[in-house]
Amino acid sequence: MNRATEVLDAFENIRRAQRAGVYAPHKPLLILLALARVQRGEPRLVEFTAIDGALKQLLAEFGPSSAAKSRHYPFWHLATDGHGALWNLSGPREVLKRPAGATPSLGELREQHIKGGFPPEIDEALRHIPGLLQAVATRVLDTCFPGTLHTDIAAALGLDLDGPTVLRDAVPVAAEYTTTERRRRDPAFRERVLRAYEYRCCVCGFDLRIGHTPAGLEAAHIQWHHVGGPDIEANGLSLCSLHHKLFDLGVFTIEPSAHRVIFSQHAISGDRGTAGELQFHGRRIHSPQHTDMLPAAEFLGWNASNAFKTPARRVERTDRGAAPGAAR
Ligand SMILES: [Zn+2]
Prior knowledge:
Elements: H1 3-16, H2 26-39, E1 46-47, H3 48-62, H4 73-77, E2 88-90, H5 93-96, H6 106-111, E3 115-117, H7 120-128, H8 132-144, H9 150-157, H10 167-170, H11 172-181, H12 189-196, E4 209-210, E5 213-214, E6 217-221, E7 236-240, H13 241-248, E8 252-254, E9 261-263, H14 297-306
Antiparallel strand pairs: 1-3, 2-3, 4-5, 6-7, 8-9
The protein binds zinc ion (ZN).
């Protein structure tokens, strides 16, 4: 095994330690942030305080609700994953010798000036093997985040993913390992989901075609594919590119029984009228061709608790006065 493969494997092992079906963006975002620092040529170790603001912002944007509150956990716990193969800490001995489970508070990490970073040999390899850093970053993105968010995450971090491609040939072992490890996507999923919803966005009805080909229309996984979501209609939604991204960002979710579109209270739009995004709040999605194809409560439940940014906006009662004897 060459050096590049060893480094790729060290990162791969961290990912595999995550529980199946759970979306936990904390560690991967910290790793990506650290990779961006290495790419910019910054020192190996960094004080928690120096990256705290950036971590908070990243988790608020790309994580589920309340993720930002535990943003200091990976900074501490990554050091014990894989017996410290991927992350080193430095600081006062009385803090560092604590048991792994005794996570210091945010305040302690700041006041004690705790520093963290990749171990010297990994840092060295990332800085000197052409394309390795990009290969690691791409793999972390592929295995931890939905595809709609990759470009935005990289842009938010200032991470340049276009590196030399020589590595693909240099690490055949790692490439093979990844191919067998990853779940394959069913190429027919997109077509089946779009057809189920008659080739339109089930939120806004967008249905543009170029000739006969739908444009800007995507099949979204409700429970993301990379966390075990299956390629079946009941786990799919036909969404325009905008609504696909908003859905993956947790800006809105869909109620498991009434199938109404529910926006997050964190979603703010200046235009509250019929042209604004919030016009869709509280509306039922366009139904698929058959009730069998409706999104399943199991997957919508996953989405609501893993991706959606709670709390939900309330739905105004629009049928006020319609029921006989309604109080006035
Ligand atoms: Zn749409």
